[in-house]
Structures are given as structure tokens and as C-alpha cells.
Amino acid sequence: MKILNTDNCSQRWSQIEEIRYKLYDSQTQQGTPMDLKRTLSLIDATAIGVGAIIGAGIFVVLGIAVDYAGPAVIISMVIAGIVALFTALSFAELGSAIPKQGGTYEFAYQLISPSVAFVSGCLWLFGQTVAGAAVSLGLASYFFAMFPFFPLKVVAVSAALLLTAVNLVGTKYSAVVNNILVLTKILILCLFIAFGVFQINTQNYSQFAPNGFVGILQGAGFIFFAYLGFGRIAALGGEVKNPKRNLPLAIFVALAVSVVLYIMTGVVATGLQDYRILAGSGSPLADAVKVTGNTALIAGISIGALVATTSVLLTNLVGLSRVSYAMATNGQLPKSMSKIHAKFGTPYVSILITGALMSVLVFVSDLRQTAAITSISILSTHIILHSSVIRLRKANHDFRTFKTPFYPLIPALGIVSCLILMVSLPIEAWIVWAGFVTAVSVYYLLRKMFRRS
């Protein structure tokens, strides 16, 4: 069903939508064979968001951002965090109004048009699949550093396939695994901050912004890669208990925890080590903590990176399979991808396909390029997200528990800030992005023409 954006029927639609939601929620709470079950608590949903956010961004991509911003990467983190906050507000309002699988894709499908939703969904799948391949390689790199007798590519592919299998067993079981991983990596980051803060050399801040404000914006464009995870909570809207309350709350708590940890980690890392050593490093936190001479802490950071990348990869696969499931349910991807496993209650075809694609992309991934491609792809879907909030308000759709404050200023600022960060990214990312958008748009038009004939 589509939400009609006309003033004459908006009140009647709100009444119809309330009845539809109650029927839908009643079915999913009971867990009919054709529906995904609501098994995720507030803690589970929040942990999935934190698990998706805190990972490759801070343990790996931080080095790339420092290369552009220098110690001022701290400001880059704040800027990226503000842009993420605008997006979180839109996610919270839309998630409370339309608590279904698919996140940004489903919002666009309900509120804008199927064609815009298709492009948005494909962009999200593309960006997150590329990101997942990069995370797999990051995980393998840390593993290889500790156990160099294992082939790097084999470890990366094995990690992707193993976590695909975990997702097949069921969302609740993967959430339990994720909760343990999230708690572990938060403790390790806290140890890094606690030990490192007393050994900061303030001289390392002397060249605070070597590339000026442009460099800070470029750093924010890359570090935004690290804030992408909270959207995966919305992508699991059909599996969260009491979604009208828990979805918005989980999104805000996950983002708040992550922003605080990111900024504190950035301050300590750039204070411990000269930014030129961290710049472009594939293991910036490990390189930063080397100055302490604490071998146990260095080993702990490496283990933390393994835990963090594993957690991100796990939640990445969850989000990918649910968005592809939503697109298949709406008839925009093959129907087979919407099949639910009779025993495990998971969209097993979607999980298998996305896991396989990620494993293949492992062989063609480059960290800097994939971070830029992922950021520009997801930023463009967030523009569609903010536009969906505007369409929601025009429909006078009051069946929600959270409303974005300072409307329409916040969604407008969200659109502008996303565009600014997109412009800051390298031209190579724009070329890939434009090529992909053109390809999926042509595919959609051809598919529509053949269906009519």
C-alpha cells in the first residue's frame, strides 16, 4: 500500500493505516510462517546499531581520514556525527511510522515512488556490499598479522561465509553473538582511552589542521563511513519488539554511545602519535598505542580490531539480507529472495546471495576506494530518506510516536549536509556512483517496458 500525498484523503488514510499496522503487528508478533518474527529487544536493536557503527571506521578508516584532516580529524568526527544525527532523526520518525523491513528503501517505496525506492535500495545494497568486502579484508589483515601462516584472501572469504552461516541460523542467535562482540570491543576501546590519555604528547596537535577546512571536510566524508551502522536498526524494523518505541530509542542510544567513543578515541590516537605516521595506516590504533611500549595493550587493540570487524561484518550481512528481502517482497527483486526458512525464520535466499557476492568482492577491494564509494552511496540514500520525511509530513500521517523537531529545518539541513559531504569525496567515487545509478535506472526502465509488452 502506498501513502497518498493528497490533503483530501490524508485523514482517512491515517485511519486505514492505523488499522493496517495493528493487523500487521499482530501477525508478526505471533510469527506466522510467512513473516519474520519480532524477536529483537531494545538492547538487541541498540547493540546491532553499536556493533554496526563501531568497527572498521575507527579501527581502519581513521587512518585515511587523518591523512586528509590531520589531528583535526576530531572536528571531522563531530561534523560527520552532526550529519549522522540529522539522519538519525529522520530514521527515528520514519521507523516509528513504518516499522517494516527495508529501512530507507521501504520508506521511499511507501512515500515517494517505486522507481526512486528501487534506485535507493540498489545504492544501499551496493554500498554496503562493497563495505562488507572491505571489512572482511580488514578482519583478515589483523588476523594475518597475528597468524601470518594463513593466506589473507582465504581468511577474508572464510570470515564472510562463516558469518553468513551465523545469520542463517536466526536473527536472535546472531543478535546474541553480536551483543557479546559489542561489549568486548567497547571495553577494549575504553582501555585504549584510559591508558592512552595519560601519555598524550600535546606537540602532536601543533599542526592541527594541515590541509585547512577543506581537509577537515574531506576527513568528515571518509569518517562518515564509520557512522553508517545505525540505519541497520531501521532495516530490521519487522523484527524489533514494540518498534514504535524501541526503534527510535535504539537509534539514538547507538549513535550517542558511538559518537562519544569516536571523539575520545580520536583525541587519544592523534595525541599519542604523529598524524603523519597514522595517515593512511591500515591499523591506526595499533600504531598509535605502540608509543606506550605496552605489549599487552598492543595485543589487546589487535584483538579488539578483530572483534570489531567481525561484529560489523555480522550486522552488515543482516542489513543486506533484510533490504534485499524487502525489495523482493515488493516484486523489485526475484521473489525467491523473499522466502523465509521454515525452521530458522530467516530470509535464507537473501542471506546466501548477499554473502556470496560479498565473498566475491573480497578479491577486488581497496580500502580507500571502497570507503569513498560506500560513503557516497549511502549519503545519496540519506538524501532520499530526508525527502521521505517531508513527504510523510505532507501526507499528514500522524500514526507515529516520534516527530523530528524543528521541522522542516532538520530534514533540509540533512539534505544539504549530505550533499556537502558527497562533494568532498574523490572524483573516482563520483564516477563509480554515477555509473551505478545509470545502470540500475536503465535496468528498471527496461524491466518496466518488457513487463508492459
Summarize the structure in words.
The chain has 453 residues and is mainly alpha-helical. The protein is 74% helix and 0% strand. It has helices at residues 10-30, 42-53, 56-69, 73-97, 104-111, 114-146, 152-169, 171-196, 212-223, 231-235, 243-272, 275-278, 284-289, 295-329, 348-361, 367-394, 409-424, 427-452. α4 packs across α16, α7 (152-169) packs antiparallel against α15 (348-361) and α8 (171-196) packs parallel to α11. The longest helix has 35 residues, at 295-329.
- Range of strand content: under 5%
Can you tell me the residue ranges where pLDDT is under 50 for at least 5 consecutive residues?
1-34
* Rg measurement, Å: 21 Å
Approximate shape: globular
Helix content: over 70%
Main β sheet profile = none
Number of strands: 0
Short description:
With 453 residues, this protein is mainly alpha-helical. 74% of the residues lie in helices and 0% in strands.
Architecture blueprint of SSEs:
Layout: H1 10-30, H2 42-53, H3 56-69, H4 73-97, H5 104-111, H6 114-146, H7 152-169, H8 171-196, H9 212-223, H10 231-235, H11 243-272, H12 275-278, H13 284-289, H14 295-329, H15 348-361, H16 367-394, H17 409-424, H18 427-452
Helix pairs in contact: 2-8, 2-11, 2-14, 3-9, 4-9, 4-11, 4-16, 4-17, 5-6, 5-16, 6-7, 6-14, 6-15, 6-16, 6-18, 7-14, 7-15, 8-11, 8-14, 9-17, 14-15, 16-17, 16-18
Protein traits:
single chain, 453 residues, mainly alpha, Amino acid/polyamine transporter I, disordered N terminus
